[in-house]
Amino acid sequence: MVCAELGHLALAVEQAAAYCAETGTSPNAYLDMLDRWPAEMFDAAAQGGDSARTIARIWRLTLDHLTDTPLAGDLLRLLAWYAPDAIPRDLLNSVAAPPGLAAAISRLAAYNMVTDNHDGTLSVHRLVQALARTPDPHDPHRRADDISRARDHAAELLAAAYPDDNRDPANWPRCRALLPHTDGLTTHHSPDHDTTHTAAALSQAGAFRQGQGALSIALQAHQRALTAYERLLGADHPSTLASRNNLAAAYDSAGDLGQAIPLYEQNLTDAERVLHSGHPLTLASRNNLAGAYESAGDLGQAIPLYEQTLTDAERVLGSGHPLIAVLRAGMKRAQSASDSNAG
């Protein structure tokens, strides 16, 4: 397990073996320390060992050699927050002008700090990533403020990379390519460091996974996104309202109407208070609540909501808008079910 955790990197495995031998540490204890105190463990060398050969020393010496390419350190700290493999290179397009970006990646690859897979993706060894995420006051390349900025920038780039329509099968390969990096980003730091960009990436990932039937993971993403939006923007912000609607819809898809309906009700109340009755978020909240009531067999509450949503949508969007036909079909379905029950 130690070899796997260290990515079978010969130097790292040699360092771990020497440390365990000199200190009497078991492999399992070493793994635990590696997880809890990465900076100390990466810098650790067994007594009499060659500390110049530790991973941390190699990291620092390499970046010292790259001081004439300051973008190199920025890129490493940025890439540290993603999954180690198959990082889409185009995530970095806005980081710098193409010549400077290409030069920095090329120099990092020459020093084996990153791997250019020549298929539009990059890879970074997990140990290099762990170092880049771990502040060290003695290492100028691992200042806490620089690492925090890289984390937030990584979230911003990831949120912007998702396609607008994750329901279009043409966009599914892109969504699948971004999911591991969304998971990597949100696994490597606690929710209290989430930004609105983190929440946006989580919302996109959650919506895609919900559409693919991975409802448990989707619910976790939507819950964390909503928590971030509420903390950062407040309960009444449109992004918060949209996020709460997404979470309710995920519960709805999972068949948990007991969780979905109260969220839909709260969202509709807030949307009607903060926005106007014809706002897209208000229409969506009301229509979704109507659908949940219908699923619960409460047609007496569902039908008036469907009718109000259709009236407001026709007023705001016009009778020829494609959404009108969808809303009208939902209302007729509920009315037909109500008539059948009455008969």
Automatic annotation (TrEMBL):
Q: Where are the transmembrane segments?
A: none
Q: Which InterPro entries match?
A: NLR-like, TPR-like_helical_dom_sf
Superkingdom assignment:
Bacteria
Any idea what this protein is called? Tetratricopeptide repeat protein
- Protein source organism: Streptomyces rochei (Streptomyces parvullus)
